[in-house]
Amino acid sequence: KDSGRTALKIETMGRDVASISSETPVLDRLRAAYNVMTGVRKCAELSIRPVDKFVHPQAAYNNSFVSDPFIPATHSLANNISSILVSALFDFAPFAFPQFAELPTNEKSNLVRGSFEPIHVVESMSRAVALFPNDNTVFMSYTMTLSQDSVDYFFSDCTLDVDIDEAKRVLYHNLKRMAECCKSTTKRVNPSEEELLALLALAFWNNDTATSNDSLNRAAYSVRAAIMRDLHVYYSACGLKNYATRIGELFSLLVFYEKMTSDVVEDIELFRLLQVYEDKKYY
């Protein structure tokens, strides 16, 4: 695949309004829902930027944003971006999954709470591979990046009484480990846009969503089965007749992302122990 074209497709996936197709209805809803989610995230993140980097949210939809869309993340901004993604997921889910609307309110919250980190890992890493394939840059949010080169800048606005040098050392080490491992694995599988949409859905309805609630379990099973049907149609349209191996690669990538999600959660807890992150809850 042409990596340049893949990057363009991934970055425009959130801007283009999806056409709903009867052949792959789940993937089409996911594409449209992703459009909604990225619109919410862009506008919210642009509005919290510091004055010297402020971009009017309306610029998210014109060329002035495309020319310089990303800024390095900072400590103070990082304390706000989690709540933005959580809010956006509450817009994403009912648009993408009709089953979500039928769930009780507490189960909806449980789903979002359980999918927040997995969704972030899948979405941010796929975009990082497409847009920054040859370095250790990752996405902290939809419009903010982090790399080993920007670690000092990340802590430049930290006002907490913490061991900054130790925090920098830990973050620098973790970035190198995660970026190299994640990017090499993602490049090897090289998922298409449709496969990334499927991964987002499977990350949302991940294995941790299994509960004693029958309605939630039925909804999760229904979504997963529908995704597999759409992938069957997609692979057939691509002329891939024996796609069992490809499905295996895709699920192996999902398992890898789940492992990386666990690592991210552990890293966050470590930073909480270092008192770098405040113990905030967004849901």
Automatic annotation (TrEMBL):
SMART domains assigned: HOLI
Matches recorded under PANTHER family: HIGH ZINC ACTIVATED NUCLEAR RECEPTOR PROTEIN, NUCLEAR HORMONE RECEPTOR FAMILY MEMBER NHR-86-RELATED
Organism for this UniProt entry: Pristionchus fissidentatus
Keywords: Receptor, Transcription, Transcription regulation
Name of the protein this chain belongs to: NR LBD domain-containing protein
Molecular function terms, GO-annotated: DNA-binding transcription factor activity
Cellular component terms per the entry's GO annotation: nucleus
Domain NR LBD: 22-283
